[in-house]
Amino acid sequence: MIIARIISILIGYFAGLFQTGVIYGKIAGTDLRKSGSGNTGTTNSIRVLGWKAGVIVCAGDLLKAVVAIIVVWLLFRHGEGPVKLYMLYAGLGAVLGHDFPFYLKFKGGKGIATTVGVICACNPLMVPICAACFFAAVIPTGFMSLGSLAMCLGFFVQTVLFGVLGPESLLGIPAAFHAEYFIIAAIITGLAFIQHRQNINRLIHGQENKFRPGKK
Question: What is the pTM of this model?
Fold first, then answer.
């Protein structure tokens, strides 16, 4: 149903509008949009406010995707449509809400923690490999941006492999909807690369900053 897809995206988008970094920064007396890299996500929260802030911001950005996806599951679980597909639409909406909040002039975060929430809620079987991709990129280089992009690529590659090579249960939807599922996963992954375009440019030119956490 088209209407189910629209409702799912909207639920996700409004959940994604909860900007954990902005809220926590105000409580701490710091505007993360004007500090460090200017990003309101986990990495800049750790750089500016320390590990406690980073953990809270990460958890908040992750959980808002999980909550949106659970709401969509509760709403459509007894329907005839592919509820797993609707859940991914909710995840896409959450990332869009995080990245492009209308009340902040569509200038939000980069959506990585929110994407992690999507992966955890939609298909937790993908989490170990996504985590391995992240740490395999970050540990030898020190670049959080590279690890984030590697994690998102791991998510997309697994999505395709689960649909092409595995039984229906791996994605949880009929094969007729696999292509649509792939497209949404590709959009979520593409958004991560779009939001990291400046980081990618710095990586190419050897100017990207390595991760150095704050002392708070």
Answer: 0.93
